[in-house]
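Q: DUF4136 domain-containing protein, please. Structure only.
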Amino acid sequence: MKILHWIVLVGAVVLAGCSSQPYVETDHQAGFDFASLKTFSVAETKQDAKENILISPFTLSHIHAALESELGKRYQPGAAGSKPDFIVSYHVVVEEKIDPRSYNDLYGFGYYGVGYRYPRPYFLGTNTGLRVYNQGSLIIDIVDAKTDKPIWRGVSEKRLSRGMAPQQQREVLSNAVVEVLAQFPPVN
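A: Structure for DUF4136 domain-containing protein:
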């Protein structure tokens, strides 16, 4: 029975390690008074790079709405005709990446699989291969509206699954917006 508990525990740890949490990184202008920010505006994005033309305009409008919703919980939207305290811009980049992997082609039974080996019966072997995947990055920039200078940047990177339905993509992006903006304003 103890072995079963141990196997379940190891399986849970392995699955937790395989979960694809986004990597979030932020940077900001040192010395800026983020407490003075009260109103915001989200700028329309321009996805004009050839490699990113495949990003749906519906996905971009979803990100726009997610930004407004998340920032609206802590700040006031800028009134029409007036200048907000800060302007938020965002970009989505999808890059194809190559991940070199090595793996052991030991198959079998016995103690940790040592025993019958397929396809190399006389020695243990290691093969290498390449895995191609898409890496998605959501970049959120915040600019001081008075000076038009950047004051904060947040980037979320995540390995994307091929064949995700649009609803799944939007859910991943909504979570990325929440995780990046959770680190705004920065703690000095």
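A: Brief note, in case it's useful. The CA atoms of residues 127 and 171 lie 36 Å apart.
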